[in-house]
């Protein structure tokens, strides 16, 4: 596989570095192109990839589209015709939109990664266009899975993914900050409070993923009768935290649908 990266910013770099670390691709088979030559040079230095001076110059059979959505149309118009796969991580662009703009012979997969991919802990979903094959889906899963979790879903669910894992890191950053604020109020120094809060969130998430147990069951395991945890949970319920998170995800998903016209 020869991978051509269109848009050499943080997300493109994270995906390529992850794929190289996992052995999914060799750096000599990767080239990058960016409207800003400095970005392409930084990408090449970080990954060992080569730099192309134009999109046709990428000479790839798999293209990774990492531009901003408003730059995608001009990038796609520069793709050469022929048997190739386009994997798009440009937010909100549907497979129909992409397929209407790629040259003949180019198949399409749409992805929704999130920013923790930058530290190898991403949560991504992808969906296939009409002409994409099972082998194409495996390529996308391998690339996205090299920097975290990757799942294939119907395109109709991509807005829900945007509301959950796309926007979700920001929601959890607020949780971490608020938990640390509570600890500071209780007497902990700020630096230690932030570290303990972040590690607590990381540990709880790992427990859910590694044990396969329902979060409610894990919650019950640390909730003693009349203890500190149930007292804290009662406060969360009193202030509607559960409902607030449900509304945050569904509102973000609705906004994603509005922006993408779906």
UniProtKB/TrEMBL annotation:
Reaction catalysis annotation: L-proline + NAD(+) = (S)-1-pyrroline-5-carboxylate + NADH + 2 H(+); L-proline + NADP(+) = (S)-1-pyrroline-5-carboxylate + NADPH + 2 H(+)
Residue stretches spanning the membrane: none
Pathway: Amino-acid biosynthesis; L-proline biosynthesis; L-proline from L-glutamate 5-semialdehyde: step 1/1
InterPro entries for this protein: 6-PGluconate_DH-like_C_sf (IPR008927), NAD(P)-bd_dom_sf (IPR036291), P5C_Rdtase_cat_N (IPR028939), P5CR-like_CS (IPR053790), P5CR_dimer (IPR029036), Pyrroline-COOH_reductase (IPR000304)
GO molecular function: pyrroline-5-carboxylate reductase activity
Enzyme Commission code(s) on record: 1.5.1.2
Subcellular location: Cytoplasm
Annotated Pyrroline-5-carboxylate reductase dimerisation domain residues: 155-259
Gene3D superfamilies reported in the protein's UniProt record: NAD(P)-binding Rossmann-like Domain, ProC C-terminal domain-like
Stretches of the chain forming a coiled coil according to its record: none
KW NADP (keyword) present: yes
Keyword field contains S-adenosyl-L-methionine: no
Domain Pyrroline-5-carboxylate reductase catalytic N-terminal: 2-92
Cited PROSITE patterns: P5CR
Sorted UniProt keywords: Amino-acid biosynthesis, Cytoplasm, NADP, Oxidoreductase, Proline biosynthesis
Main location: cytoplasm
Family statement drawn from the similarity comment of this UniProt entry: Belongs to the pyrroline-5-carboxylate reductase family.
Function: Catalyzes the reduction of 1-pyrroline-5-carboxylate (PCA) to L-proline.
HAMAP family: P5C_reductase (MF_01925)
Protein known as: Pyrroline-5-carboxylate reductase
Organism listed in the record: Luteolibacter flavescens
Taxonomy of the source species: Bacteria, Pseudomonadati, Verrucomicrobiota, Verrucomicrobiia, Verrucomicrobiales
